[in-house]
Structure formats: C-alpha cells, structure tokens
Fold:
Amino acid sequence: MAKVNFFDKRVVKKFLEITSVVSGTLSAVVLFVDIPVEWKMRAGWSFLALLVLTYLVIWLRSTNLNSIDINVEGSDVAIKTGDIFQQPGLKAIAFNEYFDTQVDNKIIGESSLNGVFIQKHLDIPPSQLDRYIEDYTFDCSEVLEANDARKQGKKKRYQIGTICLYKDYLLTAFSRFDENNKATLTMPEYLEFLINFWDKVNNIYAQKSVSTTIFGSGITRIRGHKNISDEDLLKIMLWAFRISEMRFKYPAKLTIVIHKDKIDQINLLDIKSARNGV
Structure:
C-alpha cells in the first residue's frame, strides 16, 4: 500500500508550483512563436501527457522517500535508510538494563543490533567488554540494586537511559528484562529512557555527530501498545529530543537510521512536513 495518498494535498501543492512555472514559461513563448494549426492538437495532448507524468513522478518520489533532513529546535537531524555501523561519529547501541553481552539467542539474539555489534564489530572479547563496563565510572544514581535472583546473565542493574561510552559507541541500557529474559517496557518507561538518554548524550557527545536506530523497533515489547508502529516510535523519539536539552552544534548532527526492510512502513513525507518532525 502506498504511504502517501495519490491526491495528498502536499503532492498537489508541489505539482501546482511546478506547473505554474511551466505554464508561465510556455505562455511567454507562444507570444513570440506561432504554432502551426496542424501541430496545436498534438502539442496540447503532449502537454497534457507531460502534466500527468509530472504528477506521477512527484507522487512516486513522495511515497518512496528513503531519506529526509529536518531541523529540530536548531539541531540538524537526518532520517534515512542505511547501516548504523557505517555512520560517522558516535553510534548508539541499545542493550538491556544489565548490559548483558551473552549472545545465545536467549538473552541476546544473534540478529539483534547489540548481537551484531558484539559478534561483528566489537574489537575485544565480550569478557573484556564486561570488565570495561564493570570498571566504568557511572553516576551513583545510574547503578541500581543487584538482582541476585537472576539465573542467567549479569546481576547488576542500571537505570534505563544510562550510557557507557566505549570508543565510538554509546552503549545504553534500554530494555527491562522480565524473569524469562524477555525485553519489555511500558510507555512511561520508554519515555523515561528517551529523556534520560538525550540528557546523557548532551553531557558526553563532545560535538560529535550521533547516530541511532529507532529505539524499540523489533523485539522490544511495549506493554499496552502491542500495535505501535515504527513511525509512531520515530515520532516519539523526535518529540523527546525536542523537549530535551540536547542540541547539536553545526557541523554535528543527529542521524536516525532505519532498516531498509522497515522504510516502507514509515511516511517520511508526513515527518518532513510537520514542525520539528512531529
């Protein structure tokens, strides 16, 4: 299904802007050029066909957008398809609240973002990353109580939104884990994460660009919002970014990377047209 209605008012507006320029130019030309009578009918049909083709091109481009640039309260934000690991600057990788590194398709799935990071992009053994996280200087408020009853994975819990900076990676405690090691969040917790995350990025980004994926897309379950879409999550991310104190100073910017298999579910024209993307 097309993401943008065929008669979307923004498509119509763009079409009218283009055709007004073309029509004005043609009107000026015919003032000085006589068109033979036998050519007028052909020219008319050709012009009509050109208008139809122009409208189709505008609509197709609008419904197949895979990247946009917007400005959110003075910060440049790019939303696009791509590979987060190929982006410049700092890259946010969502972990669970324990900063687990055990990729076994139980605690961490092989195909999840942090699973791919640990298996393909981490330049040290996971055990060394565990020691790095254990020795990292967190704020006292970021380290919560130990969950000694947990049977698999680490015991120490961290406040969601907590960031551990490892080289060019922002390892962040995102999802809660239930007793069955299933990632889950409530909507208030999701908002809490975003507000904490942006505020902590503001403290450590050092004027570098930051890239993230859509937090919550994929395996995380937001209780009470089973049918929430990636587009909704993206809008919530942009809203939380707007109300936070996080601001990127040029040339640093925020990039939100969308998986190529998910872009068809997101209407980027809506986001581009809205104030601050929401």
About this structure: The helical segments are 9-30, 37-63, 113-121, 126-135, 187-204, 230-243, 268-273. The longest strand covers residues 169-177.
